[in-house]
Amino acid sequence: MTDCSLTMEALSIRPMQATDRSAVAELILTSTNAWYRARGAGPIFPDGPTTTAVFFDVYEALDPGCGLVAQDGASGRLAGSCFYHPRTTHISLGIMNVHPDYFGRGVARALLARVVDYADGEEKPLRLVSSALNLDSFSLYNHAGFVPRAIYQDMVLHVPDGGFEPARCQCSQHENKGVSFADHAWRIREGRPEDARAMAILEMDLAGIDRQQDFEHFLENQDEFWHVSVCENDQGKLDGFMASSAHPGCNMIGPGVARAVPVAAALVSAELDRHRGRSPVMLVPTNCIELVDQLYRWGARNCELHFAQARGHWHEPEGIVMPTFLPESA
Ligand SMILES: CC(C)(COP(=O)(O)OP(=O)(O)OC[C@H]1O[C@@H](n2cnc3c(N)ncnc32)[C@H](O)[C@@H]1OP(=O)(O)O)[C@@H](O)C(=O)NCCC(=O)NCCS
User: Fold this and answer.
1) Domain assignment of residue 104, given as a range
2) Residue 7: how many other CB atoms lie within 10 Å
3) 112 lies in a domain?
4) Does some domain include residue 330?
5) Where are the alpha helices (DSSP H) in the chain?
6) Is 96 touching ligand 1 by the criterion CB < 6 Å?
7) Ligand 1 in contact with 92 (CB < 6 A)?
8) Does residue 187 sit in the same domain as residue 107?
9) Which of the listed residues 103, 198, 214, 325 has the most CB atoms within 10 Å of its CB?
């Protein structure tokens, strides 16, 4: 193991730069995989740093200059990194990582303190999604004043190569019919760039947060791995939307919101069909039992649990809210 004796005086926190890209990708990979391996689990990122570079790339595109690194002044090594995303209603905290050689030495606390100071200066709440199975990160955020506000169950579902057909995917152990979304006066269609404003208004209404620029990013899809479905009601207004990402570093359904369970189920179904042959993960509110049950019927399995955490004001969600890890929002 490399020598990493560290005093807090030797640790400098500085803005992330373009030249940090590969070191940050390596740090995210090593940190996350080491943490899970130490607990007997397989690597979360099995495919190397080219996959974890997606966090740097998307966050840098969305919020240039809003990454932080902790650098060991003695060795020059990166000891930790995190990203933050200022929005009109709140600030989100993105993936936080410390190199395993530096675990338990206050590196994450020092990075978080910078973001907390920034949020306090802006007088905005901070929001994030953190694993309910990770007591290290739970304690880190809890010490800093974050409160778990919602619980999500991570559900993974393998989509057949031939596509996702809800009617064919009813799991035999379920006798009831499940959520019906066939006979409604709304329609699911592909999202278009001009939907970004309506998506932002709907999320503001249901979740109390505003982040139109994230939706513009998905809809423009310059990364070529985003897709968005929207649900339009008979008055031409949006009742829900669901994005998804098909990157090996983040293969997820969401983020999305919906006014009602059938809308959420139909949107999830539409996005799942975009992931043929893959096994995307989605964060489903545990208290939304109809949607959870529907996903079980379709063959989804639980793979982890996450909390939406907020430091400061929290808007109790209405309808169904499904966050993701990229971009993180809670
Ligand atoms: C979670 C992680 C970022 C913590 O980084 P770290 O630098 O080791 O954490 P710190 O040493 O700064 O400790 C932060 C605080 O949590 C406390 N803490 C850490 N683990 C704890 C535990 N199991 N129980 C109680 N408190 C704990 C520390 O005492 C410290 O509190 P303090 O500020 O009051 O002293 C690091 O373990 C990591 O990178 N893990 C893998 C990736 C990951 O899980 N990221 C989080 C994604 S949300």
Assistant:
1) 8-124
2) 10
3) yes
4) no
5) 21-37, 49-62, 107-122, 135-143, 196-207, 212-220, 261-272, 289-297
6) yes
7) no
8) no
9) 214
